[in-house]
Amino acid sequence: MMLNKINTIERYVEIVEQYRSKEGASNDYLQREAETLINNGELFEVCDRHNAFLFVKKNTGFRMYYYINDFNAKPDFNELKDVVVEILYRGKSYFPQEEIEFLEKVGFRVNLIRDQYLGVYKDLERPIKIEGVKVEFAKNLWEIEKACKLFNDSFDILSGDYITSDMYEKLLINNAIWIAHDIDNDEFLGALHQTFIGKTACISHVAVIPEGRGRHVGQVLLDTFIENNMENEKHRYMLWVQHQNTVAVSMYQKKGFKYTFKSTISLIK
């Protein structure tokens, strides 16, 4: 199967208008970034009579988006490799079973589920004092690199939000990375990457080294992130967590975060 590069925004709009249907299924969230992707030569297409598939070139493969109108079709994806597709759904009642079955029959396999959690400061438990761990913003590019390597190593290379080295300086300038150290020997224990959607403070990545587990390092990182970004009692915080990561889910729930009934399931090939 040949991937065809999309060279103009007009072609992308044409695909959307031709294949978008109330009776079909779609995970195309590209509208805001389509033109940038096209200008960078990163957006490709494979279309047939009823279905359209869009591919975004990433550092570690492709991310696929689709418009499926004929679930009985079986496109030839045999030569596709290193591709991830992610489907957003609203709680268990809207689990995208038909889309998953379609993708499985063309060679994809289910990877993982992520759930979105939201917290409001007034509803969250106050910080717990943990001895032996200190948390500060990353002070130099070496700490940024160490944190990002830990993030990148903590999830699979296709479905994770991979951080490339050309982002390091911006992360340092923006105070986007919190670093956890052992108070006694300054050993690196873990890190948290914070971003913002409007005024909502978001956790984009959080990870702890194996030797730091059991010391509540994740809890200290979470508490520091929350308290540092608190503007008022109604301040909001958001994160996505792997459904399978029961330890992390339990930590967020005990803190007071609530499931928003928004989840994604990823499939890879």
Automatic annotation (TrEMBL):
Q: Which InterPro entries match?
A: Acyl_CoA_acyltransferase, GNAT_dom
Gene3D superfamilies, alphabetically?
Answer: 3.40.630.30
Q: Which residues form the N-acetyltransferase domain?
A: 128-269
Q: Which domain of life is it from?
A: Bacteria
* Molecular function, one GO term: acyltransferase activity, transferring groups other than amino-acyl groups
CDD domains, per the entry: NAT_SF
Q: Which UniProt keywords apply?
A: Transferase
Report the protein name in the record.
Acetyltransferase (GNAT) family protein
